[in-house]
Amino acid sequence: xxxxxxxxxxxxxxxxxxxxxxxxxxxxxxxxxxYQQGPGQDPQFLIxxxxxxxxxxxxxxxxxxxxxFSDYHSELNMSSLELGDSALxxxxxxxxxxxxxxxxxxxxxxxxxx
Amino acid sequence: xxxxxxxxxxxxLSEEAxxxxxxxxxxxxxxxxxxxxxxxxxxxxxxxxxxxADDKGSNKGFEATYRKETTSFHLEKGSVQVSDSAVYFxxxxxxxxxxxxxxxxxxxxxxxx
Lengths: 114, 113
What we know:
heterodimer, A: mainly beta, seven-stranded mixed β-sheet, four-stranded antiparallel β-sheet, globular, B: mainly beta, six-stranded mixed β-sheet, 50% strand
């Protein structure tokens, strides 16, 4: 079965650079979620989109922005990168009308800021 | 808001020992409850889930029962293996459409031969 695809899987950037992470949800899923997991920490919710509109917002820095496109894929744009942005970034997708509302997680993008 | 509290690790067990990782939650309404496992350097894998009170989720010998009266979802396994060494996250998802997942802090399990 198709899963959530994230690209790139690994990314190395320098401080003050920008980064773009991409997420391709499971086909027909209408909702995308972004999470950030720092080293040794639990994943923290950043932002979500339902039918291309922002549906919820968590602890996402103002330097980050995200959007969901007409084909339902999503991109997380990160600017003025800081060392503390080094983390594993997960994308998850779900289908709102599905009764279990289960979120399916992608493999993550490991961002290292040097 | 929603929150999840799980027992702190690391937990070190000998192979074939019994495992319990405690998890309690605070949430309004009727959340869905999950256990995720994360192996070193890898992503999150859904281990098991329960969507309503008294449901028992099970997978790969792991079990957890949704206890609404005690707001708990403890993870158990009768006989752990070295390959079970990983970090285990208890999580909940609020009821309703596009609710985010709230994770506990994770419990690192190390199983020694």
